[in-house]
Amino acid sequence: MTYIKPKFRHPELPVNAVGYARKDYEGAISTLCGGCGHDSISGAIVQACYEMAIEPHRLAKLSGIGCSSKTPTYFLSNSHGFNSVHGRMPSVTTGAILANRDLIYLGVSGDGDTASIGMGQFVHAIRRNLNMVYIVMNNGCYGLTKGQDSATADLGSISKGGVPNAYMPIDLAGMAIELGASFVARSFSGDKTQLVPLIKAAMSHQGFAFIDVVSPCVTFNNNPGSTKSYDYVREHLEATAAVDYVPEKEEITISYGEGQTADVELHDGSRLALHKIAPNWDPHDRLSAIQRLHVAREKEEVLTGLLYLSKDNETFHQFLHTVDQPLNTLTEEDLIPSQEVLAAINADHR
Amino acid sequence: MQHHLSGINDMVVRFANVNGTGSASANTMFAKAIFRMGIPVSAKNIFPSNIQGLPTWYEVRISEKGYLGRREGIDVLVCVNPQSMQQDVASVRPGGYFIYDSTKPLHREFMREDIHFVGIPMMAMCNEHFTDPRHRQLLKNIIYVGGLTALLDIDPAVVKGILEEEFAKKPKLIPPNFQALELGRQHVIEHYPHPLDIRVEARDLVGDSIIIDGNTACGLGAIYGGATVAAWYPITPSTSVVQAFEKYANKLRIDPETGQKRFAVVQSEDELAAIGVVIGAAWNGARAFTATSGPGISLMNEFIGLAYFAEIPVVLIDVQRGGPSTGMPTRTQQSDLLLAAYASHGDTKHVLLFPSNPSECFDLTADALDLAERLQTPVFVMTDLDLGMNDHMTAPFHWDPKRRFDRGKVLTAEQLEAGVTFGRYLDVDGDGIPYRTLPGAHPTKGAYFTRGTSRDEFARYTEDGAAYVRNMDRLLKKWETAKTLMPAPETYQATNQSSHGMLFFGTTAYPAQEALDRMAEQGIAMDAMRVRSFPFTPEVEAFIAAHEKIFVVEQNRDAQFRSLLIQELDLNPKQLVSVLNYDGMPFTADKIQRLIVATLQPQVQPA
Ligand SMILES: Cc1ncc(C[n+]2csc(CCOP(=O)(O)OP(=O)(O)O)c2C)c(N)n1
Ligand code: SF4
Ligand SMILES: [Mg+2]
Prior knowledge:
The structure holds 2 protein chains of 2 kinds.
Chain A: H1 37-52, E1 59-63, H2 67-70, E2 80-83, H3 89-99, E3 104-110, H4 111-115, H5 119-127, E4 132-138, E5 141-142, E6 148-149, H6 172-178, E7 183-188, H7 192-204, E8 208-214, H8 230-236, E9 237-239, E10 242-246, E11 261-265, E12 271-275, H9 286-298, E13 302-309, H10 316-320, H11 332-335, H12 339-348
Parallel strand pairs in A: 1-2, 1-3, 3-4, 4-8, 7-8, 9-13
Antiparallel strand pairs in A: 5-6, 7-13, 10-12, 11-12
Chain B: E1 7-8, E2 10-18, H1 23-36, E3 41-46, E4 55-63, E5 74-79, H2 85-91, E6 92-101, E7 116-120, H3 122-129, H4 133-152, H5 156-166, H6 174-191, E8 198-199, E9 210-213, H7 214-224, E10 229-232, H8 239-252, E11 264-267, H9 271-283, E12 288-292, H10 294-310, E13 315-322, E14 328-332, H11 337-341, E15 351-353, H12 358-375, E16 379-384, H13 385-389, E17 391-394, H14 413-417, E18 449-450, H15 465-485, E19 490-491, E20 500-504, H16 509-521, E21 527-530, E22 533-534, H17 538-545, E23 549-554, H18 560-569, E24 576-580, H19 589-600
Parallel strand pairs in B: 1-8, 2-5, 5-6, 6-7, 10-11, 10-12, 12-13, 13-16, 15-16, 20-21, 20-23, 23-24
Antiparallel strand pairs in B: 2-4, 3-4, 9-17, 13-14, 15-22, 19-21
The complex binds thiamine diphosphate, iron/sulfur cluster and magnesium ion (MG).
């Protein structure tokens, strides 16, 4: 079956600063199960991109394989997309970023795609501090292969299969912080008021911005006993702070009680306003973030919000000292050495 | 006593060393001196998978007739490795020469009546004349080169010239090197008859040739071919490809104003990531390549299939070695053919190019970058350890300054704006090659979603079987188009002379050409063709059709090239006779000749 949406724009539809309507950020009609958390995340991506006035063609979306990795079809149909192979989105994105440093890169993955088959690539993408947004749609199971436990399933969590999970979970957000990711957040697909500003902040961030989004699989892992069900997550939600994304040009007009509010600045000059900040947590302090995650785990809380943001960091292109101009625009004149050079090389080998 | 080997400019000199002792540069210097005397020369490193302490050999073939392959039989052996001495003594041809460090007397058991021993007290001389222990070890190597100049009549001025260039940046080292050279030389002059009957004589037979290894040539080919992204994971024997690329790029691809780099090299976490990076970069419009060997190709398989189906122009340089991963990493083979030709799952086949010498490594790497973009598919440059890691005499590199990159069918913003119909997998021109767009090309036109299959001509998701078949058939059409773009095979006769033909490719060309001449001398007429690509071009098909029997000469056990011929050209297997070598050493002319003559035996009368 082929789904094509009619491309009709009502003349009165409101448009954003770059002249696009919200519709222009949508994709094909989703074929995921009704109620799947992943669809809400797609919606949040659409909203974030529309509100931030990103030109769709300046963004490239890449994914691995899984229900989650299918979602790039369901948002931003005016952006180039790449559904690659299972667990390997990070390497493909690495190459894409090297070829053209001027686009925004949005990588979408699942917990199977990232925490199992793609663990190696995930880890090394962090080490490179790729300038990208990396979203894991985390449902604790392999949706597309019908519900097997994934490596992020909590110990003892029971999916539809009915057998309690025997293994310790991998906390991708905690791991990302440990490995030096420069922006780490966690959110919940059912909490758009938090997710949308986090996605915006991640897009404004220069460097590797990771968001682990708990995203229930209604078909295989939404039953009682599962720690990734809508009910469980709602009951155990705890946030580091409430977040507001403040674009570069806007003034912050609201003020909050002392000790309760902070502003963190992002690389493009925009800010994330944090309200009702959890005690003993400083978004710029890696240790406090890790500690806060451990405490949450002990209390069986699903800790969401911004977890860690480094103040200054170099990205991959800076490590490699590449030219400012995208490599894919370099021409023969820029790339081919002269005849004399080749003659000298020949002479060196006689 | 016994007989002496004799002959001018026709010999094999083998050096037996311990790896990690600096012998490589002295040995290279020896080969280069012969080359500078205008005599064709080739050199092969025979080395273990180890960094220090195990035996290594360096074999130099000197050939007035210009034969650059391996030849059986060692005429002169220089042994500075006690570990391998027994085996080394045994390897010398009767009448040949064994040069050794006579600081300690030679073990009686090692003595042979039918060869000549030349002792030079290398260690003693070093200890007497040099103080720095590290220098002692290095200069010991120069001492035997000095001895060889006297024995083989090599012009010492040529060697000194090379030493001066070598140490141009450390001139303090020149006098001790000269001294060591003279010590070895004088010792031979004083104690042994010299020069030997087997020796060299200056000639003018190398023209404007250069001496270089294939890996460096591939790296340089990628520079001229416009690659801007290289991703790799170290593996012998391919490691020096990307290292050479990076070395040259650091000199030749620097923005003069900012000092920034016009290239990116990623040493990735494994080969899966390496090919992933190349695919991502190529999808996004940069020329990208990776270099690896068989084990790496194995790991890349899933991705190679994606690149085939998603039609992404990637270049892979496969420097082949003996399998498997723990197999013979430092020995040569041509045994990745089937692996590469049909790499991945599903129906896939890939373009392979077969360079035979470093000059072709340069050309075909640059061509591969063009072909990959023209055909929007993976292209493999199939070299091997012998070609990649050994120095070969080869034609100088040439680049036509008027040459432009062939970026293939990429729609520009202007074309999109003008309203051309864009279907990512639509065959507009009837050659099976669709048009592509690059991310960011145009604000509202040309975006598409890339996936392997399950899509129609306009890249829309569909699981319709008919759409799948249309796509697969178009890819076959593209394969037919590829045949028209492949480098032509090389033939060795103006018109066919015989009912027998010989087919070979890659480094097998060196000994195969020599075997051809030898057989001609024996009265065996044989036509020959060197294949340079897969898919096979019509010339290959015609050549096979024109002969009753075809000898397929290759370096693997399972006759993989023959399988490809049978499979792709629908041939009768009986027509193709395998001539194989798979011991990890380069094929020799002697063996090719022997194997072919043996199959022809009933027809050939002994001379
Ligand atoms: C190499 C390979 N192995 C196995 C599969 C089968 N497979 C497809 S999706 C998937 C799991 C996806 O899980 P996750 O990433 O969590 O995505 P979800 O469907 O849960 O969103 C697997 C194992 C595959 N596509 N490729
Ligand atoms: S199987 Fe689960 S993850 Fe996949 S679409 Fe359905 S609900 Fe979503
Ligand atoms: Mg999952």
